[in-house]
Amino acid sequence: MAVYTQVDDGALEAFLAEYEIGMPRSFKGIAEGVENSNYYLETDQDRFILTLFEKRVDAADLPYFISLKQHLAAKAFPCPRPIPGRDGAALRELCGRPAVIVSFLDGLSPRQPSRPQCRELGAGLARMHLALEDFAMTRANSLGPASFQGLWSGRAKTADELETGLASEIEADLKDIISARTLSAHLPRGTIHADLFPDNAFFLDESFSGIIDFYFACTDALAYDLAICLNAWAFDDAQRASGLQYSYSHGAALISGYDAVRPLSDAERAALPLLCRTAAMRFFLTRLVDWSDTPPDALVKPKNPLEYAQRLRFHRHATGPADYGA
Amino acid sequence: MAVYTQVDDGALEAFLAEYEIGMPRSFKGIAEGVENSNYYLETDQDRFILTLFEKRVDAADLPYFISLKQHLAAKAFPCPRPIPGRDGAALRELCGRPAVIVSFLDGLSPRQPSRPQCRELGAGLARMHLALEDFAMTRANSLGPASFQGLWSGRAKTADELETGLASEIEADLKDIISARTLSAHLPRGTIHADLFPDNAFFLDESFSGIIDFYFACTDALAYDLAICLNAWAFDDAQRASGLQYSYSHGAALISGYDAVRPLSDAERAALPLLCRTAAMRFFLTRLVDWSDTPPDALVKPKNPLEYAQRLRFHRHATGPADYGA
Known about the structure:
2 copies of one chain form a homodimer. In chain A, about 40% of the residues lie in helices and about 15% in strands. Chain A has about 325 residues and is of the alpha+beta class.
């Protein structure tokens, strides 16, 4: 939650002169997004978000992300629409960084998603998958199972410092996940969001109003996107004292919302426990990396990996899709 | 630049139910304000800013700040207007903190103020002083010269670590400022902003469009507010390599803009060098306190006090108001 790049008056003025979006009336840094600098930009024509891409995003991936949003917007799927400059290019440069202006999306991100919101989100995710069926570009999932050993390597000690015995748990999980990963290779593939946490989804009251932040999007099993959402939306941290609990009713709502728009195959349904376990491992490992790479006295605390160790325990003991409400 | 308090869905919904401002359509943390948490709030009726007051603001002062903005708004002076709830009270509570919703103010804060903007700012400051002439509430300036010895005490070593010999410079300045401080006691007094840096002033193109962030406002010499602005707006850090320079043309524009709306008396003009020196000392000392109280490896770096030591050197050698363009 930060603004890394300060935009000077002259730089902003020169940048906006490349567009036909009117004169600026407001420009405020937004405390959202861990990876990039985001500004609320209002002109006499409309409201926008200006994003400057910081070093954690690979500039070579940006045309993919921009095209993906353009494709969705052209299909009237609610997401930020990249605004082209006068020369037609949406991806530009500002303050020495790649930068883009996108349309402003109405809606609020839920902090404690309700069951109806989970159903709406499932349906929204399925609509996104369908809208991207004919999106031609591809991008490998750089945080898939093939990356797990590299992320884990040298971090067993950190895991055991977080919780005694955690390292051997994780190593057993990694073996299971990596040996089983070909099971999902035959599942329907397509473009997935891969990071659809509640802060990346917008709602107006209980109605889904759109999706933002596509900077982990990639080509993978569609049901894996659903598995990420089950991890992100269907664990109840209201009861954090007794450990995170899977909320069967939230999970079932999410799955049925998805299934109503894009019916899940039996194979996708059967793969859900493994896909959920894989997704939990991905977020456990990246959080563990951030945890061990951040100095202990830093003011910005990384997210605790243990929340995902708790999810892994649930997935490890799941006997089948019925445990998830599928 | 942070959002300290996260507002839960239920808390926001319950809070907005106390108002008649419509249903929320957007809610985003803003990376502005060091002291408080600020959110951009859009409803189906209008745009607003929601502020939660964190511990650095004394809750006992809040009614003063709210009344001051209500007074200004009632006089059509451009500033955030506190929005009352259904019961008429603007100062409420959210997430255990005092909270207020204010109207959204259009405009951009300049990072490198231009000379025309300095003139506009001077005129805007004078308009604010006139609009507050009949504001009945008072608040002592808790960061006036009487506070300086307390802020300085025990920090000579930190000053000398920043720059060898700085501590003795500051001690000589403090003696001068404190012995001369009664000179300004006879100047016209009133309600001052006391923190009118460029990030607290808004412009639309080159035209002044309003003032925000009144949380240092207090009762003091009106010309002291002008002196604070001269420190904040009329030193040129484009040439930072060779030290900060006073920009005579920016300063003269600011003073003449002010004088055109509220003519300065000879006594106010004569007091400007001392008032400027006092203002520079106030910001030097509070920055020095933040500097020595922040751990060296913190991610959020405090502002460097040396920028104000450089201003103090200019003020120390000023021979009269003509050096400022007054």
